[in-house]
Write a structure and sequence with these properties.
267 residues, alpha+beta, 4-stranded mixed sheet, 5 helices, globular, disordered C terminus, DUF317 domain-containing protein, DUF317_SPDY
Length: 267
């Protein structure tokens, strides 16, 4: 384990010990606010009941996201309703799926779809995952062998995405996507899945696994707050920009009947 000391601490704050965990696929679930606060800043409605599981709904009510760790197997459920040419779809992800990877998918739900055709495998290949065809199926495995992504196709041509990560002790998580899940969302997930960036976890929240590498860092509470604030501010700014484009432009010239400098008196 490496140890790093961050400079620039203020005298009024006490630094807290955190760990950068690699690979991120085995970092454990993390703080779900990483997901929920970004969605809230993007205009999503918090439908959670007091003391109940997390429940979020998109502004157009087309997508619902829930997280419940108290049921078996527990974890994340994302459900999209049928709209236009898009059929109903769903995704289920285990509770130990890192929030940084979950956010790859959920952040994409708040953003416009790219005009480019999605390629689920491209982000994995860029990070040197091993890919191999198996008849009508396709598999990608991370260089360390801990994470995978499978594409399965049944006799009717229906596709199913199955992915996850496990260490040698069997600890980890799995996720599944419905055949109708939009491919750009699956690609957003695979991009986050393959990212080499470590995940940060506080002391006491690092999984016990021989396959992870940790770097100890001392972090100020204000730094953690600033990082989250910057992430949420970016979500609010992006949402505002999209809404501004969709709303009518304000009138910049006077109406024909409104003479400049004239006032009409109501009788």
């Amino acid at each position: 384990m490496r140890k790093t000391k961050w400079q620039g601490w203020g005298p009024a704050e006490q630094a807290e010990q955190h760990y950068l965990v690699e690979p991120r696929t085995l970092a454990g679930g993390g703080d779900i606010r990483h997901v929920s606060e970004f969605l809230r800043a993007s205009g999503w409605r918090d439908k959670s009941k007091p003391g109940g599981p997390l429940a979020m709904e998109s502004p157009d009510r087309a997508v619902r996201i829930s997280y419940d760790p108290h049921i078996q197997p527990g974890g994340w459920t994302i459900h999209g309703t049928a709209r236009g040419h898009q059929a109903e779809w769903w995704a289920v992800l285990g509770r130990q799926a890192p929030v940084e990877i979950i956010a790859g998918l959920t952040d994409a739900l708040t953003q416009p779809r790219s005009a480019h055709a999605p390629n689920v495998w491209a982000p994995l290949e860029e990070q040197h995952w091993q890919t191999r065809p198996e008849g009508r199926h396709y598999t990608a495995t991370s260089p360390d062998g801990a994470a995978w992504m499978h594409y399965r196709q049944d006799g009717h041509g229906n596709a199913l995405w199955w992915t996850g990560a496990k260490d040698r002790q069997g600890n980890g998580w799995t996720a599944q996507f419905a055949p109708t899940t939009p491919l750009h969302l699956v690609q957003a997930f695979s991009t986050a899945l393959a990212s080499p960036e470590p995940a940060m976890r506080p002391r006491g929240r690092v999984p016990h696994s021989a396959q992870i590498r940790t770097t100890s860092v001392s972090v100020l509470p204000s730094q953690l707050s600033a990082w989250q604030h910057a992430r949420n501010a970016a979500a609010r700014a992006s949402t505002w920009a999209r809404n501004s484009v969709r709303s009518p432009r304000p009138r910049t010239t006077p109406r024909p009947h409104a003479a400049s400098g004239a006032f009409r008196t109501r009788r």
